[in-house]
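Before going further, learn to read the protein records used in this course. A complete example follows; check for yourself that the lines match position by position.
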Amino acid sequence: MEVSAENLKTPSDERDCALRPLNVKVVADKSVDAEAQRPTWSGRLEFILASVGYAVGLGNIWRFPYLCYRSGGGAFMVPYFIMVLLCGIPLLFMEFSVGQYTRVGPVHAFAKICPLLKGVGLATVVISFVFSTYYNVIMSWALYYFFSSFGKTLPWMSCNNTWNLVENCSSGFPGNATHLQSASQQFFDQKLLQKTNGIEDVGGLHWELFGYLIISWVIVYLCIFKGVKSTGKVVYFTAVFPYFILFALLINNVQLPGAKDGIYYFVTPVWSKLFEVKVWVNAAAQVFNSIGIAFGSMISMASYNKFNNNILRDALIVSITNSFTSILAGFVIFSAIGYMAHIHNLPVDNIATDGPGLVFVVYPEVLSTMPVFQLWAPLFFFMLLCLGLDSQFATVEVAITFIKDEFGCQVLQFLKREELLALAMCLVGFILGIPHVTKGGIYVFQLMDHYTAVVSLIFLAFFEVVAVCWIFGVPRICLMVKRMQGKVPNIYFRVCWLLLCPLLVLCILISSIVQYTPARYGNYTYPVWAEMVGWCVSLVSIVWIPIGAIQEIYGKKGSLLQRLKTAMISTIDMDAEDPLPEKQNLDNSASEALFTSVA
């Protein structure tokens, strides 16, 4: 795939057939020609809800509460909110600005911003699509639990089932200190996953999960097949409904015995933890992953905005809502864990766990002991489904946006209708997700998640920040914002973009390398060949960065230094009064003068 920076046009000159769906009514804004060619969100609220739905996901439910109690409880809030202010909000504002101004997906946006690092854009598309292939597997788990919840009793309540290993099954919750397993754990391992002994023994397909995976992809397709016009309508429900359930669960949970002990454990500060570097790294990584920086989704969704949309307001709303949801989920989860600790006479720290186990093992056990569990269990898993679907919409849309922007004419000539393009993407994602619904699929899932969401993302994020904040430059970002909003960003954003964000991301990258540990699932250690496969998965996304750089340098003329300088020149035409000339880079003195003027 070749993305030639020389062939890229200004936002108003994008190819019409690549950007205009054949069957979508275009919302036009007379102030910007590009808006006559590219569909936009029907209303401001649709974009905000879609962005909130993407940012607020399952990580808010299982990752944040666990990190909080493990990293000092209430003390963890200090580094967390510092990272939100210094990294989360500025980078989200930056991605919204890039998407809304260029009005193209991340591939074309980065090819314009910094041709040398144009591979960053393609890398975001690849990592998002790889992520979508296994993230939808979690949706199949949620569907499995959802339909299993309709009965007189919940199937994970007892040890009297055919899948239970009776010799070490406990009908209560034994805690982490014994060799016994809860009935809920065995339902997850033996019934849902039908887990084998390792990735070496993949086993056959788990046909029930296979069916639920089909259903989950069908749901995704029905929500995105009309592009932003269908997604924009769906998010009114999927982004809002989870909050009704979270508040209902919180009201119910705080009335349970022992709930206050769980909440107290969740918020009690352990101030000594603030002196541990790992706590600060965890806080930064949580903000980065939760908001969804470097996946390309925020750039893609912002590219469908009207040119003058208030992205600063939207960035603040999305960031604040994301943090609020994390804290709300923490109260919901730990009030329930406190209740479980009370009824089983166990300490809270002997129950809480990380990852999928928190919502597919611990919380189902909590639900089975609650009054009116026949109501709460289906609602809880339906909430998980809504949270996951919002994130899934955005990751699949990144790939679709890229194909429309790059190959729109050819693809639409072949497929005839844009709905068939969305169908093809969902079909490919479904096929690639099949290994995760085998009987050894959990090991494949864990391996993919570790090397995609942990290893690749940090490298990709670093190069994205370097390309936009340092090579493209803060003065240009400020000018882009001024063209759209009528005023430049304040000193807070300029300092964050110029200094704090790049340094924080660099610190996360270095810490990730220094503290790197191979992928594990529980006590299972992956064989060497599986680790190699994991690194190959990681390279599938990040390899486009050096490939794009080599291609760009090779295509230039002159010495190596001259080629490097030319490859770092932005091709964006700042189409407004006193525009920056296309392909003309600001020299250092001009950059300093512009930075001084906007200050």
